[in-house]
Amino acid sequence: MLEQAKETQQLFIDIDEGRIPKRVPVYTWMDITYIMQYAGEDLRRIQWDVDKFKDMIEVGAKSFQSDINPATFTRIMPVYNILGAENFRMSSSGQIQHPEVVGMKPEEYDELIADPYKFTHDKVLPRLYKNLDTNPVKRSMVFAKAMKAHSDIYGQIFPHHDLMAEKYGLAYDRVGCQSIAPFDQIADQFRSFSGISIDIRRCPDKVMEACEAVLPMMIKAGIKPHSSKQKRTFIPLHMAPYLRQADFEKIYWPTFKKLVEALCAAGAYPLLFVEQDWSRFLDHLNELPAGVQMMFEYGDPKTIKEKVGKKHIISGLYPLTLLSGGTKKECIGKAKEIIDILAPGGNYIFTFDKVALNQVDANPENIIAVNEFVKEYAVY
C-alpha cells in the first residue's frame, strides 16, 4: 500500500503547489472520541487507556474512506488530570468540555503587556490548572510530569499515524502543530467570552496592546522544524463573528494577519478553521498570503469560491448535520452540489463543516457513502 499512499499524498501536494490534482482530495476530520464510540468503546474508560489509542487510530484509518486518517487527538485526558485542569473537563458521558474560565482579572492587562511569558506562568496557568497553584518546587514537578506524559503519548500517536497511512494507502497527517489568533488566545484562556466582550468596550487600547504582547508567543507556537505546506499549523478562529466590524478591523485583524504572515514567511502554512460565519470578512481573508487552507463552517459556497478560491485552498461547508439525519441519497446529492461549485479550477479539498465529536453528530454509513462518492465523482 506504500505506492498507493504516495499517490494519495500527491493529491495534497498538487493542491499545495497550485496544481490541479487527479481528483478532489477527501479529508474527513473526527475527534478520536467519535471513533472510540464507533468502535463500541466507553468514553469514560478508554480515554484513560493510552495503550488502546493505537487501535483507535487503525479503526479510523480503515473505516471511513478518507484520504487522510480522520483520527484527531485534541484533548488528552491523562495530561489534563495531572495538571488539575479547570478549562477542560470530562462530562458524565465522557465528552471533554471547555467551560468558561477566567485566567486573568480585568485589572491585570498591564502585567500581561509588560511580560506575557512571566504573567502566563505566574498567574494564568495556576488559575487554569489547579495542581500548578502551589509552591515553585511542586509546580515544577507537576509541570514536568505533565510534559513527560504529553511527550510519551504523542510519541506513540504520531508514528502510528504514519504507519497506518502506509498500511492503508493514505496521505500523512496534514497538521503539524497548532497556534491561535492573539485575540482568541486572550478571550479563550485569559478573559473568557463574556470578559473580553466587556473589555473591548471598556479598554479597547489595552486589549490591542495585549494582542501585540502575546503575538510572539503565538508565532513561536506555530512554527516547528517539520512545518511545511504539507504539515500545516492549525488555527481555530473563534471570536471574530461575534465582533462588530469596527472592532474586528481595529482589534482582531491586525495581529491575526501578522501571525499568518509570520507563519507563511517561515514556511509554516496555516490551516484555518473558519468557525461560524465569516461572510463579512472574506475580503480580509483574501489579503492573507497565498496558499492558506481555510476550512469554512458557514457561508455561501459561490461567494467564498469567488472571493478567496483563486488565492487560497477552500475546504469545509458540507453540513455535518445532514450526515446525522439525512438519507444516503440526500447526503450524496449535497456533496455533488458543493463539489460542482467549489471543485472547478482546483484549490479545493472536500471536508465537512465541523469535526465529528459524538456518534450522534453523523451516521458513519453516510460518511462512508459520501466519501466514496466524492472519490468517484470529483475527478478532474
Automatic annotation (TrEMBL):
InterPro entries: UROD/MetE-like_sf (IPR038071), Uroporphyrinogen_deCOase (IPR000257). GO terms for molecular function: uroporphyrinogen decarboxylase activity. Gene3D superfamilies: 3.20.20.210. GO terms for biological process: porphyrin-containing compound biosynthetic process. Coiled coil: none annotated. Residues 197-377 form the Uroporphyrinogen decarboxylase (URO-D) domain. It holds the Pfam family URO-D. This is Uroporphyrinogen-III decarboxylase. It comes from Desulfosporosinus orientis (strain ATCC 19365 / DSM 765 / NCIMB 8382 / VKM B-1628 / Singapore I).
